[in-house]
């Protein structure tokens, strides 16, 4: 599996306008100077990039910084998972769900996905739509990614119930659930991520406008992560509890990574081959209660040191947990109800999730408590064997559960992309 990768943004786009007197059409991201392009080289991931070009911009035009130039490929030269799954986590994100308008069926949905895919490909390449709002003018692609998914209800509305995977069956109820139906599910799901807030908002607004009368907004959530370069070296992000979050994520280098995260060839729904299923949960953190706990108490709840994410049994962040080690008191060093122990693959018959969350803060509640927490986003080949299995175990005795409230939920099928065509084409035209 070749990850949808970042690439140099030095090629000329087909954006609006031309540099006066040059006859050269410029993209939204400005042409890179040779110095700026050389600086961007260190951020390239994978082999989807193009060659450096000679700048056609004015000598006095500033080059974009490396953060602005980094580009995520919308598609590759063969069937690949969509961007936004294994793409490095971005600093800003929007999650949005739409419902098809009454009377909109399969053909209308196909036309929308065709328009959305074409628009996403242009935006991710840093190009300017014809009727652009100007929100992100002067900015580069900034690692923008757009990901499309289909919810359970989409199949009934489009006459495709026979092609709905069993993996999209509704999730069970869990004891920490306080789910708001108005902020859950939806026919269509879109994930937007970028390392610049204006670039992310620009994509959100452009996709919403492109939906027109075909689909109506159901819910939308905004998230954030630590910005690239904010730490002395690359490291796992922290959540709003101050904990290192995502240490035990499966890695593309793992021999069973694809098997765990992406749908295999043996699926009975071939349009999902190479795709993935995403569970989205808005999890409010009871931060006032959490912050009353001492650091030692917090570490026992999680099972890891707060300072560096290392397991309580010693080592560094990536040292395997020793789940058999007891302390001088005879009790496990990592408590039996510690979150990290219960969620570990070793405790769940090898089940694992690829976590790719955003934090959120939506102001303060009437009692003054922060309305803040995690937009939990996890990817897997089969939600029943991964998310549902792990969450059921957490539901039975996770020490972290009293500090969490699951307030919104969604489950979506995210098909792979072909070298040409639009997202979901094999479903809608197959």
Automatic annotation (TrEMBL):
<dbReference type="Pfam" id="PF04261">
    <property type="entry name" value="Dyp_perox_N"/>
</dbReference>
<feature type="domain" description="Dyp-type peroxidase N-terminal">
    <location>
        <begin position="82"/>
        <end position="225"/>
    </location>
</feature>
<keyword id="KW-0349">Heme</keyword>
<feature type="region of interest" description="Disordered">
    <location>
        <begin position="1"/>
        <end position="20"/>
    </location>
</feature>
<protein>
    <recommendedName>
        <fullName>Deferrochelatase</fullName>
        <ecNumber>1.11.1.-</ecNumber>
    </recommendedName>
</protein>
<dbReference type="InterPro" id="IPR006314">
    <property type="entry name" value="Dyp_peroxidase"/>
</dbReference>
<keyword id="KW-0408">Iron</keyword>
<dbReference type="InterPro" id="IPR048327">
    <property type="entry name" value="Dyp_perox_N"/>
</dbReference>
<keyword id="KW-0560">Oxidoreductase</keyword>
<comment type="similarity">
    <text>Belongs to the DyP-type peroxidase family.</text>
</comment>
<feature type="compositionally biased region" description="Basic and acidic residues">
    <location>
        <begin position="1"/>
        <end position="10"/>
    </location>
</feature>
<dbReference type="InterPro" id="IPR011008">
    <property type="entry name" value="Dimeric_a/b-barrel"/>
</dbReference>
<keyword id="KW-0575">Peroxidase</keyword>
<dbReference type="Pfam" id="PF20628">
    <property type="entry name" value="Dyp_perox_C"/>
</dbReference>
<dbReference type="InterPro" id="IPR006313">
    <property type="entry name" value="EfeB/EfeN"/>
</dbReference>
<keyword id="KW-0456">Lyase</keyword>
<keyword id="KW-0732">Signal</keyword>
<dbReference type="InterPro" id="IPR006311">
    <property type="entry name" value="TAT_signal"/>
</dbReference>
<feature type="compositionally biased region" description="Basic and acidic residues">
    <location>
        <begin position="298"/>
        <end position="308"/>
    </location>
</feature>
<feature type="domain" description="Dyp-type peroxidase C-terminal">
    <location>
        <begin position="236"/>
        <end position="417"/>
    </location>
</feature>
<dbReference type="InterPro" id="IPR048328">
    <property type="entry name" value="Dyp_perox_C"/>
</dbReference>
<comment type="function">
    <text>Involved in the recovery of exogenous heme iron. Extracts iron from heme while preserving the protoporphyrin ring intact.</text>
</comment>
<feature type="region of interest" description="Disordered">
    <location>
        <begin position="298"/>
        <end position="323"/>
    </location>
</feature>
<keyword id="KW-0479">Metal-binding</keyword>
């Amino acid at each position: 599996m070749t990850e949808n990768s970042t690439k140099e943004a030095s090629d000329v786009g087909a954006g609006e306008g031309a540099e006066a007197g040059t006859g050269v059409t410029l993209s939204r991201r400005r042409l890179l100077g040779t110095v700026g392009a050389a600086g961007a080289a260190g951020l390239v991931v994978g082999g989807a990039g193009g060659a450096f070009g000679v700048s056609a911009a004015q000598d006095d035009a500033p080059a974009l910084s490396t953060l602005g130039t980094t580009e995520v490929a919308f598609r590759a030269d063969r069937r690949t998972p969509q961007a936004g799954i294994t793409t490095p986590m971005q600093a800003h994100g929007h999650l949005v769900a739409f419902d098809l308008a009454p009377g909109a069926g399969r053909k209308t949905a196909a036309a929308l996905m065709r328009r959305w895919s074409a628009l996403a490909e242009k935006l991710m390449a840093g190009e300017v739509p014809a009727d652009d709002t100007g929100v992100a003018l002067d900015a580069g692609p900034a690692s923008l990614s757009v990901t499309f998914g289909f919810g359970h209800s989409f199949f009934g509305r489009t006459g495709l119930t026979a092609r709905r995977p069993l993996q999209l069956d509704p999730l069970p109820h869990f004891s920490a659930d306080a789910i708001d139906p108005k902020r859950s599910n939806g026919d269509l799901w879109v994930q937007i991520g970028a390392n610049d807030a204006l670039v992310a908002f620009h994509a959100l607004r452009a996709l919403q406008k492109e939906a027109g009368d075909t689909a109506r907004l159901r819910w939308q959530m905004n998230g954030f992560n630590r910005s690239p370069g904010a730490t002395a070296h690359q490291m796992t992000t922290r959540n709003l509890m101050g904990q290192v979050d995502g240490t035990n994520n499966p890695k593309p280098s793992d021999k069973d990574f694809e098997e765990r995260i992406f749908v295999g060839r043996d699926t009975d729904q071939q349009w999902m081959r190479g795709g993935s299923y995403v569970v989205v949960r808005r999890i409010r953190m009871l931060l006032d209660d959490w912050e009353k706990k001492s650091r030692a108490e917090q570490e026992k709840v999680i099972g890891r040191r707060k300072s560096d994410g290392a397991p309580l049994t010693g080592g560094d962040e990536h040292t395997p947990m020793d789940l058999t080690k007891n302390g001088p008191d005879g009790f496990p060093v990592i408590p039996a109800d510690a979150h990290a122990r219960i969620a570990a693959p070793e405790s769940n018959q090898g089940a694992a999730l690829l976590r790719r969350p955003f934090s959120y803060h939506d102001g303060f509640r009437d009692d003054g408590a922060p309305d803040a927490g995690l937009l939990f986003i996890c990817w897997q080949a089969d939600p029943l064997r991964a998310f549902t299995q792990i969450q059921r175990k957490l539901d039975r005795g996770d020490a972290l559960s009293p500090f969490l409230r699951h307030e919104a939920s969604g489950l979506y099928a995210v098909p792979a992309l072909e070298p040409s065509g639009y997202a979901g084409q094999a479903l809608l035209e197959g």
